[in-house]
Amino acid sequence: MTEKRAGLSAMTLKYIAMATMLVDHMGYVLFPWILWLRCVGRIAFPIFAFQIAEGCIRTHDRRRYALRLLLFAVLTEVPFDLAFNGQVLYLGYQNVLWTLLAGALVCWAADWAQRTPDALHLLAATAAFAGAFWLLEVCHTDYGGWGMALILLFHLSRGNRLIQLAGLAVFCVASVGGVSIELYALVSLAFIWLYDGRRGYCSRPIQWLCYAFYPVHLLLLWLYARTVDGIWYLT
């Protein structure tokens, strides 16, 4: 009997997403003239979006899951604004955790509508999606309404690679309004499709460290840009 080869666990996917996100943000904050860093960074968001879609199904406590996303969305805002805009508080652009939180909420709304598939529930879930899409676009969250839509697409298309490929391609174009380096995000599917359903080792401290990585690495990048050899473009 041939033993089935294991793929990537959820934690391995998370580490890949975190690593490529770090490369992306290093490119934006420290080395904006090195384009390939931003290209590598396109891999990160679809993996995070996929993991939110999976997390919505696998979490044992939706309330705590949503509250964790909300907590770190709030905690990340100042480091995000410092790293990307050089201001303690900038209202014109918000961090991606708001998009991820909205994605989780609309996934649960879709699940609710599917459990009672009548016109009223479908209309309510559609209204929730449309309202969240509009709010994310108005607030200019990172990846905005299209990022939320990608999370929902992954949630509703589990196992359907053709839909995932087509949906991600549409996201790559629609999220930036045309063809760009965002198309490198399609590479993320090579990792997502290797996911084998395992969680991987994740203790409670590791879980919180993964959440904290986002605001902490942004703050460290900003501090580095402020203090190291001749990089003063944020002043």
TrEMBL record:
It comes from Vescimonas coprocola. The chain crosses the membrane at residues 12-29, 65-84, 90-110, 122-143, 163-194, 206-225. Keywords: Membrane, Transmembrane, Transmembrane helix. This is Fimbrial assembly protein fimC. Signal peptide: none annotated. Pfam families: TraX.
